[in-house]
Amino acid sequence: MRQMRRVSGNILGTIALLVLVAGFTGCKKAEVAGNVLDNFGKPLSGATVTVDKTTFTTTTDSNGSYSVGYVPGKVLVSISKPGYLSQNLDLDIATETRYPAQTLTLYKLPAERGIFYYGPSDYISLPQGNMSSSNATFTFMVGWSPTTSSVTGNFVAINGGTELTFLSTDKRDIKLYSVKPEGVFAVTNGVTGSVTATVYNDNIAHITPGISVRKATLSSGKYAFIDMYGFDGGKVAYLFEVK
Do residues 195 and 223 share a domain? Predict the structure, then answer.
C-alpha cells in the first residue's frame, strides 16, 4: 500500500510538473521585434529603442535586430542614434504577443549642408563650383543683353547606368541642370529674358523640412545642382560628372 501511495504520488507530481511546463510554454511574451537599417541598406547596430510612457528600452544588435517589451494598447516605439534621423513606430496591439514590426530605415545625417551622392556604404559630397555670367554685345533694347551662365570647378566622378540617388540638406530652390563641356548651363535671351537650359525634373522625396532624397537616371556627361537665383542664402552649384 505504501508503495502504491509512493507511485501515485510520483505520478501526480509528474502530471503537475507537465501542467506547469505547459502553462509556461503557452505564455507569449509581450514584445515588439524588428530590424533597423541605415539608408545604405546595412544593419544599424547600437540604435536605442524605447517604448513611450514605459521603462522598456533596448539597443539594436550587430544585425540591426531588437526585441523590446510593451504594454498592450497604443504602442509608440522610438528608434534613435546620434548622427541619424530618428524614426517612430505607431502601433496598436491589443494582446500580449511577439509582434513583428516593419523594418525601419534611419537616415545618416551629414555634418554639413550640401548635396551628397549615395556611394556603396557612405555619402560622396558633391563639391561646390564657381558661378559666373558673361554678357554679349548690347541689343537694340538698352539694358537687355544676352547672358551666358557658366560654372567652373571640380566635377566629382560617379558611376551611371542606373538610377542615381542623392541626399540634399540644402533647402534652397535647387534644380538639376546639364552642363555643356565648356561649362555653360543656361543662356538668357537678351530681348525676351527667357532662359534656355536643360533642366531635369528629378524625383524628390521630402524626409523632413530641409532634407530630401533626390533620384534621377542620367546618361554620361556633366551636371550640376544649381540655385540659379540665390534668393535664399546666395547662389550655389554642386558639381558632378556621370561616367
Answer: yes
> What pLDDT is recorded for position 160?
74
Element (H, E) at 21: helix 2-26
Dihedral in degrees, nearest 10, Cα atoms 6, 9, 11, 15: -160
H or E element, residue 203: strand 203-208
CA distance 208 to 226: 21
Task: List, for residues 21-52, the tens digit of each pLDDT value.
Answer: 444 444 568 999 999 999 999 999 999 999 99
Q: In the structure, what pLDDT confidence band is assigned to residue 238 with cuts at 50, 70 and 90?
A: very high
Contact (CB, 8 A) for 213 and 167 = yes
Same domain, 123 and 224: yes
Give the span between the Cα atoms of 144 and 135, in whole angstroms: 9
Rounded to an integer, the average pLDDT of 236-240 is 95
Q: What are phi and psi of 14, to 5 degrees?
A: -65, -45
Number of Cβ within 10 Å of residue 79's Cβ equals: 24
- CATH value at residue 140: 2.60.40
Distance CA 67, CA 61 (A): 10
Listed residue (45, 193, 168, 39) closest to 115, CA to CA: 168
pLDDT digits (tens, 9 = 90+) for 41-88: 999 999 999 999 999 999 999 999 999 999 999 999 999 999 999 999
Domain carrying residue 186: 115-242
Sign of the alpha-carbon torsion through 93, 97, 100, 105: positive
